[in-house]
Amino acid sequence: MRIASFGFRSLPPSKGSAGADKFALEFLPRLAARGHSVTGYNRIYPGQEKGPDEFQGVKVKYFKTIPKSGIDTLLHSWKATWDIIRHNSADIVHIQGNNAIFALILKLFGKKVVLSIDGVEWEREKWSWPMRKIVLANAYLAVKSAKYIAIDNVFTKEMFEKKFKRKFDFISFGSEVSDKGDSDILDRLGLQKGEYFLFVGRFIPDKGLQYLIPAFEKLKTEKKLVLVGGSPNPSEFEIGLKNTKDSRILFAGFIYGEDTVTLMRNAYAYIQPSDIEGLSPVMLSVMGLGTPLICSDIKENKYIVHEDALMFEKSNIGSCLKVLEYSLQNREKHLEMAKAAKSRILKDYSWDTITDQYIELFEKA
């Protein structure tokens, strides 16, 4: 099959990348390895340069966009859509995220479209009220314009089925992480194995750093809190987070690939304080590595971790602090939980299996 994919930022991941980019990194090369012709569409923001035209068998095309949340996605998706139509470069178009209008346009031009949805976007705090209404309208449009929609979270799937009165496919995110040995990132950041807590992700209200940072500031420990990620265009929210006076808190910037894996593998514990999540790719990776996990008690997190992580009440600084203290005082118990999580996750969340499931969906389309 000729397959085109867009809706992520960059393949391989680059500054500002998130879960959609991790999905593209694991999924698209596997499609190419199975003999399919695959094209991925990268975004270029001001100050960024075009990368290689091929990555692990995937043809990569680049289109410029602007550093404006929401608008950047629309502009880039339009350019990718027009390129696919103009050059007739795909039989199947795989789209991630809120791009339903482009699914409709592609459908009108005879393309078969498969959408991937990873959460209830209209509930995310990063959107203004008018933008939430637009995102909700986009969800309605997605359901009307795409026959094949894969959702990676069972609760989101249930919510969509209840709201839109139709069935959707459930295909989870994967967990496997390559084991090439540790990089030198700990030395570069001045860290020691087991002497830091870790968070990796975007610095937006959904992710809950506004609870984690104040809780950690009250925690009596010599360990550090390492926060990896952010946004290429920092918001006032992100700037506010970085105003902490706690010298133990390290904002490490954008880190990718083996450096990220090394940080995850060697952390004392990984913390996911989210208010809203889909099926968190970072949590799956962390559990697959056998790293102890602390997370908020939202139902999406509970679905992944079962009894294999320490959980605190979402949006609750005091509860977060108590769980951090418990982890410090009950290390062996936390390590036992991590061991059980690794065994279960590596069995249930295989990228090769997920790729096979998507190929089956593409063949149906």
SSE layout and pairing:
Blueprint: E1 2-6, H1 19-33, E2 37-44, E3 54-55, E4 58-64, H2 71-87, E5 92-96, H3 100-108, E6 112-117, H4 129-145, E7 148-151, H5 154-164, E8 169-170, H6 185-189, E9 196-201, H7 209-217, E10 224-229, H8 236-241, E11 249-253, H9 257-266, E12 269-272, H10 281-289, E13 293-296, H11 299-305, E14 310-312, H12 317-329, H13 331-348, H14 351-364
Parallel strand pairs: 1-2, 1-5, 2-4, 5-6, 6-7, 7-8, 9-10, 9-12, 10-11, 12-13, 13-14
Antiparallel strand pairs: 3-4
In short:
This protein is of the alpha/beta class and about 375 residues long.
Account of the protein in words:
By secondary structure, this protein is an alpha/beta fold. The protein folds into two domains: about 190 residues, Glycogen Phosphorylase B (Rossmann fold), CATH 3.40.50; about 160 residues, Rossmann fold, CATH 3.40.50.2000. Helix content is about 45%, strand content about 20%. It has 14 helices and 14 strands. The strands form two sheets. It has an eight-stranded mixed sheet, sandwiched between helices. A six-stranded parallel sheet has the order 11-10-9-12-13-14, sandwiched between helices. α11 links the parallel β13 and β14. α1 crosses α14 and α10 crosses α13. It is globular.
